[in-house]
């Protein structure tokens, strides 16, 4: 079955057609896509007369959607009801669904949820130490995100290393504008760094990652900022951008480091420190580590970040081969010979994971 994969991001629309052997038949990206505009979808579909199903990426499934789900009107309403948990992405996902519906009619459409991979985490790893009545009244728990990427990485890393996915402990480092780690045992999510929202965890492009909640209260109660001010600062003006004062793009930050910019030096140091600290925490959740995987825009394309993290993670048996690391393109094993823990780079392919989940669901 050929699966049309639709990824409606916060501003872009990515379309790809994935063949039965997980090959990419065609792809197209609209960098600035207006919600409700089915224009880009029609010509893409018309080039291919064999679309067996459509897979849509949906960021948040809440407690209700824990596996890929065939889309009907009730599912669309359920996705919409979760908008307050992902106010930017949920409406965009619905717009993508509506756009393809208007073009391809009765073809089966499937929602693939970024939170679903983490749905099986133990209560120990998903529960916040909050008042019981709060937890009973509101869905405040650790959901985790980037699940489609982490699920794909778990399988692909096992193939690259020729190790059985069922018996290895893997940490997937999805490092991009948004970033998260996932501790994976036997191909299943055990723990992850993002929580109730994608703000928790690592330093990201413009997001702060984990900070003391008391600081948020202080900014509102003492500094006089509104909740909207704080949300904007934490979501859009923090992370690498806030630290460097230059850019949210790691390439620009590294350029600043090379130019002797002390703010960029601090940004890189904080980024790597939080990454290494979090890898260690994920290893603790797994009780050890067999494979460390880098994926995402930074994970795939920044040998310097990989090398800096690897040097500080030697206590976990990680040793990265310098020449292999520098030359890594696509999926690659960058482990120094003799190292206890394998280190690999894997190209992020959420589209392939979504196609697999869709085929599994609809039985083709």
Which labels suit this protein?
Nucleotidyltransferase, domain 5, single chain, alpha/beta, 17% strand, 364 residues, 2 domains
Give a verbal description of the structure.
With 364 residues, the chain is α/β, with parallel strands linked by helices. The protein has 2 domains: 3-113, Nucleotidyltransferase, domain 5 (2-Layer Sandwich), CATH 3.30.420.40; 162-345, Nucleotidyltransferase, domain 5 (2-Layer Sandwich), CATH 3.30.420.40. It has helices at residues 41-46, 73-81, 89-104, 123-126, 132-137, 147-161, 213-221, 227-236, 239-244, 250-258, 262-286, 296-301, 303-312, 322-327, 350-362, and strands at residues 3-8, 13-18, 24-30, 53-58, 69-70, 109-113, 169-175, 179-185, 188-192, 291-295, 332-333, 342-345. A 6-stranded mixed β-sheet has the order 3-2-1-4-6-5. The model has no long low-confidence stretch (mean pLDDT 95).
Helix percent band: 40-55%
**CATH architecture heading of the largest domain:** 2-Layer Sandwich
- What sort of overall outline do the alpha carbons produce when their principal axes are compared? globular
Q: Could you tell me the number of beta strands? A: 12
């Amino acid at each position: 079955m050929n699966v049309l994969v639709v990824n409606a991001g916060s501003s872009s629309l990515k379309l790809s057609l994935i063949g039965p052997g997980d090959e990419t038949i065609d792809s197209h990206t609209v960098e600035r896509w207006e919600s409700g505009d089915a224009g880009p979808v029609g010509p893409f579909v018309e080039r291919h007369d064999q679309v067996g199903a459509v897979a849509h990426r949906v960021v948040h499934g809440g407690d209700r959607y824990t596996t890929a789900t065939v889309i009907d009107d009730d599912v669309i309403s359920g996705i919409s009801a979760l908008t307050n948990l992902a106010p930017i992405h949920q409406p965009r996902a619905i717009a993508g669904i509506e756009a393809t519906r208007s073009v391809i009619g009765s073809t089966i459409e499937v929602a693939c949820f970024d939170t679903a991979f983490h749905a099986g985490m133990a209560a120990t790893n998903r529960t916040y130490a909050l008042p019981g009545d709060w937890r009973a009244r509101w869905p405040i728990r650790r959901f985790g995100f980037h699940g489609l990427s982490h699920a794909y990485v778990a399988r692909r890393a096992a193939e690259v290393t020729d190790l059985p996915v069922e018996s290895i402990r893997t940490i997937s480092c999805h490092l991009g504008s948004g970033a998260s780690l996932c501790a994976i045992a036997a191909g299943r999510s055990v723990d992850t760094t993002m929580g109730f929202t994608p703000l928790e965890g690592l330093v990201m492009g413009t997001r702060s990652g984990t900070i003391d909640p008391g600081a948020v209260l202080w900014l509102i109660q003492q500094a006089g900022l509104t909740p909207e001010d704080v949300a904007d600062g934490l979501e859009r003006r923090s992370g690498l951008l806030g630290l460097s004062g230059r850019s949210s793009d790691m390439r620009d930050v590294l350029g600043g480091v090379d130019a002797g910019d002390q703010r960029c030096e601090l940004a890189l140091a904080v980024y790597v420190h939080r990454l290494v600290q979090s890898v260690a925490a994920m290893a603790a959740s797994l009780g050890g580590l067999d494979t460390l995987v880098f994926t995402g825009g930074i994970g795939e394309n920044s040998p310097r970040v990989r090398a800096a993290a690897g040097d500080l993670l030697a206590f976990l048996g990680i040793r990265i081969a310098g020449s292999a690391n520098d030359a890594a393109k696509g999926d690659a094993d960058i482990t120094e010979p003799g190292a206890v823990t394998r280190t690999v780079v894997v190209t992020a392919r959420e589209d392939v994971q979504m196609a697999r989940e869709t085929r599994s669901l609809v039985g083709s």
